[in-house]
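Researcher: Batch entry, complex prediction.
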Amino acid sequence: MNAIRIIVHKEMDGFTFSILPSVRDFIKNLFPESHPAARVYIGYDMTSGFDVLQSGIEKQIYPTLLGVEKEQLKKQIDKIEFINYQTGNIEKVNP
Amino acid sequence: MSEFLIRGWNVAIPEVDIGDDIFVVEDENGTMKRVQVKTSSITERKNAYSAQFQIPVKQLQKISQSPIYYIFIARKDDVWTKPLIIPQVKLFDEIEKNNVGSQHKDYINLYFSYSENKIVCSSQDFTKYIADYSDFPIIEH
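Model: Structure tokens for the complex:
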């Protein structure tokens, strides 16, 4: 099974999404044209009540962090987990 | 701290101990990196020596927009060893992928074995991290 784990860290004014170096290598092997990043940070106004994990943000996260569009990922990746180690929760499982 | 200053970075120490030992800042663009220094005394072995360090699991797992750099230094014969500089994500990857270290309660124990110019932890070669300042390039002022 091809699975990817995205680590989610909630900060006071935003979220950081990161992948480990081995995951970056894995993505590069599956999608040679991709340029996965180490992490992306999404900031928001603290009073906005914005919950990034409820908003379908993965459509923006995948191409930015993984360097691959969701539709391409679906063809080769069986599971994508967003893991928040602070809560111990797996926030989302896609695709 | 002095090494970072010599390389042209600015450094700051938190007034209150929050877990990070040093904030290292590139003044021009505001790039900030968090540094956690871990020290240990050594244990002599035959033709080698070892040192053990501990890292809180929760600290390792929290990868923020400004990840931590761990610096491991051991004290041998009244002299500090060359620093082992490892970014948080790489150490986390080694632990997850190669089972480096051992977890006991809320801590990961790392047992480094030093020989000649080589450092090994849980059979993984960490030599490339010796004095690895690649993420702290020299800044000309």
